[in-house]
Design goal:
This protein has two domains: about 120 residues, no CATH class; about 250 residues, Rossmann fold, CATH 3.40.50.150. About 35% of the residues lie in helices and about 25% in strands. The strands form two sheets. The chain has a seven-stranded antiparallel beta sheet with strand order 4-3-2-1-5-6-7, with helices on one face. A seven-stranded mixed beta sheet has the order 10-9-8-11-12-14-13, sandwiched between helices. A hairpin with a 4-residue loop joins strand 3 and strand 4. The longest helix has 22 residues.
Amino acid sequence: MEEIKQELDKALASDFNKVIISNKADKLYKYKKIEINKVIVKGKEMCQVSRYTDKQVFQDNINIEETAQAVMEEFPDKFKQINIFSDSREVGLRCSKSGKLLKNNRIIAQGESKKPQGHNRQKNYILKEGAVIPPLVDMGVFTKEGKVVASMYDKFKQINRFIELVDDVIKNHSKDTINIVDFGCGKSYLTFILYYYLVELKGKKANIVGLDLKEDVIEKCNQTAKKYGYHSLEFRLGDINGYRSDMPVDMVVTLHACDTATDYALYNAVNWNATYIMSVPCCQHEVNKTIASEALAPMMKYGIIKERTAALATDALRGVMLESCGYKTQLLEFVDLAHSPKNILIRAVKANVSKEKKEKSLQEAKAMCQFLGVEPTIVKLLNDDR
């Protein structure tokens, strides 16, 4: 281990740009590969650690001085190989089957390596810095010149994450126009961004209706839509429960609709046979009030554990009930856990699901409800409506 540390310190002492940790030694380890890139965060040079699984990437930032320790935690027990890149050289370290440390050096041709860029440039975002996007300017995420405000990088990433999740599902949307209802739209920041993305960036025709209970909010949103020239974006006063759409609905969006309001939004989406559902739940009290399971008694003793268990159970039941109605459903991370504990987005796409699979999902939901001693609104709505 001392030899490895010495070689690492020597390689990292040069002006490295990137470290790749690969070739798994521990086959059960959940990460497939790890990359460490130098980035500039709010004017300070740091290292961004990206840990890759089969479907996701998890990122965090560390100080440059912590790089060697971060690598030592992965090599050689979990990964067999390290490649360290600087402007002029690549240093490779590999652990053989016998435990011997193997080294090689390679000169990098001029122009082959890249200098680190700003933190937000490490990813090819859909909403790009430098473009003047009026909603982002009004939100304080962009300056008037289209630059990301330093303190708003996390918000910028969150907004892009939402648009990426939408972009991924509408690629196969073949209709000329996409009709969207946004339940509980509030101040509608993401609704405006969604319109910008669909109409301005993708060149699609879109009709979007935002619905909320607050009259002053609706009035202000309509004024803002008019100011932006978003002619097919309209905001209406109304309740999710019982709302009737005057157009066929392709997508239902519900962002932070409180408690059972999310359930009524999902119920409407299913009844309208909407192709896409994008839902980020908010506070979830219903199951927390009624959950009772003798097997889970130790978890029910502690308020914070009970609350989180109830929230996860609620979202799991929402997902499986959508599956029982013929939707291919995913529960995805919407924002990093470091920024919000309410970080789940339910994304559902209408699919050709067999009757057997639908029935299996319904029975799974019923069994879970029985085990937890609950009957949440989403189960009652979608089961009773059959």
